[in-house]
Amino acid sequence: MIWLTWRQHRVQAFAGLALIGLAALVFLPYGHAIRGAYDQHGVGPCLVHGTGGDDCQSAMSAFMSRFNGIANHLLTWFTPIPGLIGAVVGGSLLGREYEHGTWRLAWTQAVPRTRWLTAKVLLVGLGIVTITASLSAVFGWFRAPIDNVSSRFSSGAFDLEGLSLTGYTLFAFAAGVLAGQLFRRTVPAMVAAFAAFMALRLPVEFWLR
Amino acid sequence: MSTALETRDLGMRYGRKWALRGCSLRLPTGSVIALVGPNGAGKTTLLQLITGLLRPTEGTVEVLGRDARTGSAEALAQVGFVAQEHPLYRGMSVADLLRMGRSLNLRWDRPMAERRLADVGIPLTQRAGALSGGQQAQVALALALAKRPALLVLDEPLANLDPIARRDFMRTVMVAVAEDEVTVLLSSHVIADLQAVCDQLVLLKDGSLQLAGAIDDVLAGHRILTGPRTDAEPPVPGLVRATHSDRHTDLLVRTGTDRPEFHPAWRSHPVGLEELILAYLEQPTEIAR
Amino acid sequence: MSVFQFRLDGSSGVPPYLQLVQQVRQGLLLGHLRSGDQLPTVKEVVASLAINPNTVVKAYRQLEHEGMVNARPGQGTFITASIEPVAPGPYARLRHSLEQWVRDAHAAGLDDETVTAMFASVHSELRTEGAA
After folding, report:
1. Contact A3 B106 (CB under 8 A)
2. ipTM of the complex in this document
3. In chain C, fewer beta carbons within 10 Å around the N or the C end?
4. Does any domain span residue C100?
5. pTM for this predicted structure
6. Enclosing domain of residue C110
7. Where are the transmembrane segments (chain B) (predicted)?
8. B272 touching A, CB under 8 A?
9. Quick one: how far is CA B136 from the chain centroid?
């Protein structure tokens, strides 16, 4: 099952790696610039010694006004990423088998289909965890100086750092697998999974926090 | 002769409609069984119940005495299946497909599969999606046979194939029967191709079993009676179908093993396989039994 | 390469195993097959005609039963030629009676087509009855 799962999802795995590469390409240089400014404005010592002084306040607000908006703006582009990854990978897992009729090939080998599905979901889920954890590591490193100043619960930060990126993606993935079973087609399953992701994501964004 | 496949009161319901009902069959090992019926008769449903792709609503199905309903690895391992339109992962090479088979099966005879593919000139490096329909059918067949199944199930294997590809496909199947003593169950609505390859007949119509048995016995158990035209329903026991022309009436009669005497006005002939099958398929279902 | 090659006519309505039996019989009658000739193995026939091996086995068993061939385990199936080409005496006698019958038929006003149809009908009936 490991080989087959790899063979069927390797294109998606490579796309995931490319996405990490792209994120690194965008955020590493910019993150270095932020760190430079962080030191230059003396934000670090201000945070350590308390933020009461006027000099510190002005240094921190200068730093934040320079970077917070644009950093959030950049990250906003990546907000739909968990939904897209989860929907594409999850929607194709069963949807593609039904759409091409290959479920009749896959489930008449000597692997019972519950075992087939369990193995695939676990292996692909593991891949998703690896890729999304790497992505959120990049995002987290990038925003770390800003988060030091504000807090990680500001919108834009929370959804892409730590565990939430992985959590959202796994949710969309599960929705995609389920939708693939229901619709038996790849594209409708992906659309449904993405819609489910948005239906979860928007209330969290505006009300829950 | 031992039993390869046995079903008892097998039934499958989709919603409120029964796709198959009351199907009790017993088919001997080493035989080649034709499953015949019009589209929508329940052929694919029966085959998918046998391969474990579907769980029956009622009844049992056993392959070599092993319950096929469980979908266990052992039950799956003894049945090779080529589904309608012989689906393959089109993006994979033939070698990839063979590797997939090895990773998903208990038994896997790769050398034999490679030899079969070489015999029909299919390179292992070729992408499945780039093969012709006939070649894709051969690859699907090689995958099914590489499992070394006791029962090979083929769902409409000849549909969409040109005459050469049909003959090549059936040749591979028949050689497998000769070499590996595999039992074959194949569905078809093309009747003409069956006589040279099949020795057992199972006839389905509207989800119910019309006829099952060795083709020789079935043919010997039926006669065509030809006589002067009668408009009234002739009171002949075992009448399957009456056809009338201007001058005379033909009756297909199920006689069983004994040869009853008929009225001297009726001349009696043996019946051919195709004629017999068509007669059963054309008649209204109610008269079937 | 075997000395003998089977054919299969899917549209003839004659059961396949009987076609094989008839071809061997005909081969003997026409002298294409002689005593000691080896028939193709079951697998060879299967591979060349895409035919059910059980059918070939059945045909060979029938030929053996009729004493035309002898199956030697591990070696193959060999013609024993208990049917020689039809002996001159019976051949002449049969031909004569057939001629007589055809003359009668023409005298009764049957045309060529009807004569052929009648022969084929009687022949196929007897043949299939013999097989059943």
Report:
1. no
2. 0.87
3. N
4. yes
5. 0.85
6. 88-131
7. none
8. no
9. 20
